[in-house]
Amino acid sequence: MYTFLYANREIRIETESSLFSPKEADKGTLAMLKFVEFHADDKVLDLGCGCGIVSLAAAASGVQPSNLVLTDIDPTAVRVASKNLNNNGYEGAICVVGDGLSQVPGSDFDLILSNPPYHTDFKVAKTFIEKGFNRLKIGGKMFMVTKRKDWYKNKLISIFGGVRIYEENGYYVFEAQKRATSYATKRK
After folding, report:
1. CATH 3.10.450.50 is right for the domain spanning 26-180
2. Would you list the domain boundaries of the chain?
3. Residue range 127-146, pLDDT digits in tens
4. Residue 43: alpha-carbon gap to chain centroid
């Protein structure tokens, strides 16, 4: 168990050794959260939720738990994330096990946040970006954090038409906004 402070709230995290960053809040995820502005009525997708830090930060910022959707391919992660939300007083989020967005209900998300596995090939990130674009509402934003810059920058530009990049503690945080209904590379 560990804690972290977000939006002036101490958030308690219980985790398991098999999950990503089991001893402390991941520095990349915390770097990404520095650049995200949550609003109470946002509909938020925590894509690759792990132990639920992104959703806990959103809830601590005032996002209604019923507007939170969490997904991960690992059933343990989804179980732990759900438990962490409930233990911190944020009940009512939708938590689903699935590969990428395969089991995610709904669309028209205001925010999609992800710390994708970036030490592997880009297949997972490619799917997250392409399928995530389709689930955002116009004006919605995708945030990703990685230690790799060029591939993510180029992919996000090809899909969204642009990207804002921040550097924080050795990480790159990408912010891309959906401005049209089709991918940038298909617009004429």
Report:
1. no
2. 26-180
3. 999 999 999 999 999 999 99
4. 12
